[in-house]
Amino acid sequence: MEDSESVATLMDSTTSKIHQLQKAFAELESHRAVTLNLKWKELEEHFHGLERSLKRRFHELEDQEKQYETKTRRAREILEKREAAVVAKEQVSLDKLQEKRDAAIFSISNALQKHRKVSSVEPAVVSYDDQFGSPAIDDQPPEAMTAESNLGEIIDPSENGNLEYPQLVELCEQMDSEGLHKFISDNRKNLAVLKEEIPLALKAAANPAQFVLNSLEDFYPKEVSNVDGKKDSTLLGVRRTCIMLMECLSILLMYTDPVSISDVISEDVKDQAKAIAEEWKPRLDSLDVDANNGNSLEAHAFLQLLATFGIASDFDEEELSRLIPMVSRRRQAAELCRFLGLSEKMPGVIEVLVNSGRQIDAVNLAFAFDLTEQFSPVPLLKSYLKEARKVSSSVKPGNASPITGQVRVLSPSPLD
């Protein structure tokens, strides 16, 4: 601004300088010896033109300076607002993180307190509303841990009168896996009660882990092919029971002293479980990922086998993550992924689901693994609805489609 004022002062003094020049010119003309062709009027007009041009340019520069100052001020205001928004967002994130941390600490404290009570009396049974969830407390979200720590009453399985189905204890004592399968099939209407009491009954078995492994024998009967198995309701029931028994063993292990877990699942049992997994794995290669619509019992059983018997580290993570889309519609998918150590693979899994038109599954996993910023639910659901409208207008009655399949699994069967 000081430079501008100086220029303005100099411009104001131009007129006086012209007058002085006029006097000098008049004096020169009075002493001239020859006639000058250049007249004063022409010279005066020339200087006034220069003056006007200079003033115009000066005003233009002033306007440009004001515009620059305005833009600078606006840019500074925008930058300050953005900085304030970033600070506010960071604070919100910190608050959420602190809330999750506090909830986790509180839940862990409750779980430890529950575990101490269980250790001093008998392991507690948990009411497992979401079948085949993760069997490890440390790998579950705080909400799940809090729920499990408050479920069930402490029951001594040796007191058969406390159980609605004391026959379960007798079958486990006899290591009768075939009889246990039949009993579960006959009482499947009361599946919720069975899920609560089987973990207790397994304690009565001489070798619970071996007993559960024995129960998997008919998962792939030799006389039934994979294709026929999908249409065989009896075989489907057997497979669901196999998965449930592995889950019940996981619940039993959850309430077993960590030091004693190696006694329940010995190295020999782990080797047997690994051999079964190696036998099952090639059968999964022939499965059609899209045809299963994320509800494959075969893939679920394989992953549950690895989770329950702690043998996931013996298999490639990339191969395991490619199986997740086969079970993405099962309620236990997220917990299985956590327990198998596949959390870091979830962005890739969700991307596969999105690209294959299974936005509902993608949204569920995005929420489960806190990936909603990377995979925004609203655009995904809008895309799903758009595709659903197209399918509903083009699919003939009686024909199924991946979209309609997604709608059906929003209300899973209690036998899943």
Automatic annotation (TrEMBL):
UniProt region (Disordered), positions on chain: 395-416
Domain of life: Eukaryota
Stretches assigned to coiled coil: 11-81
Keywords for the protein's UniProt record, in alphabetical order: Coiled coil, Developmental protein, Differentiation, Flowering
Residue ranges, compositional bias (Polar residues): 395-404
GO process terms (BP): cell differentiation; flower development
Sequence similarity: Belongs to the Frigida family.
PANTHER family in UniProt: FRIGIDA-LIKE PROTEIN 3, FRIGIDA-LIKE PROTEIN 3-RELATED
Name of the featured protein: FRIGIDA-like protein
Origin species: Populus alba x Populus x berolinensis
